[in-house]
Specification:
10 helices; 16% strand; Adenine-specific Methyltransferase, domain 2; single chain; 2 domains; 307 residues; seven-stranded mixed sheet; Rossmann fold; alpha/beta
Amino acid sequence: MTDRIAKPFLKWAGGKTQLINHIEQALPKDISKNKFTYIEPFVGSGAVLFWMLNKFQNLQKAIINDINEDLINTYKIIAAKPKELISILEVLQSEFHALEGKDEAKKEYYYSKRELYNKRKEEPTGQAALFIFLNRTCFNGLYRVNRKNEFNVPIGSYKKPTICDKENILTVSKALQKVEILCGDFEETLKYADENTLFYFDPPYKPLSETSSFNSYSKDEFNDAEQIRLRDFCKKLDLLGHKWILSNSDVKGKDENDNFFDELYAAFHIQRVDARRIINAHPEKRGALKELLITNQVASQEYVRSI
């Protein structure tokens, strides 16, 4: 039996699975030659993290971080107590599946668990289980909170969704044994960098319109000032000799006169890549669009600067 490959344990708006090929092409040319440290300050669902762990045997250590305390708690529980988590998820899955076809009872069950989650009085393993349950059963796997840090996404329309993916949780737990898990501001990750470090940034994207913002990801908004602070951090990393790749929305695709990122990262390599908008309240607005990959390194030959 071959070893299973860890994959994201969450549905996630803006998950980077579809951009892996572009990210691979944007990697520094010598990435495979020496041992290196990988740092991801906005880890989200971890698609790039798990790909990196599987792809590069010379990845000596990985550090992940996120401002979302409930997300990071879930990573920590999967790393330390996967079997306890699985036992709770199996109960939630069994109870939820038993309500299939009973729409009102199903809604009542979902909203009772959402209310319990928002009280945040469960012990860490129970809270992690509720986090995964809501992610797997809410509308489009969206994570959104209000100013009070209350998760407020309505129930989704899935029939018998997979709430407990036992095999993947165990595989993810194994993969996380070589990962240091942090919760805080992205700038705090600098202290974990060494002489050969690669950063990958996947911050809350700058929204393409007022109604397309899915970045109410924590009670504090990641606004333009935060985008500028992140650019300043990237400049600092560049001066210190660290390699980095950053992804964000291509606001120019929505408004050709919007040069926000082109001006912000004018000193670096900007590439526009094809992506798909999977989550949108209006199905007809889901589909192809461009995203940005920005790096301070000259990467593989396939990488072409295009501004």
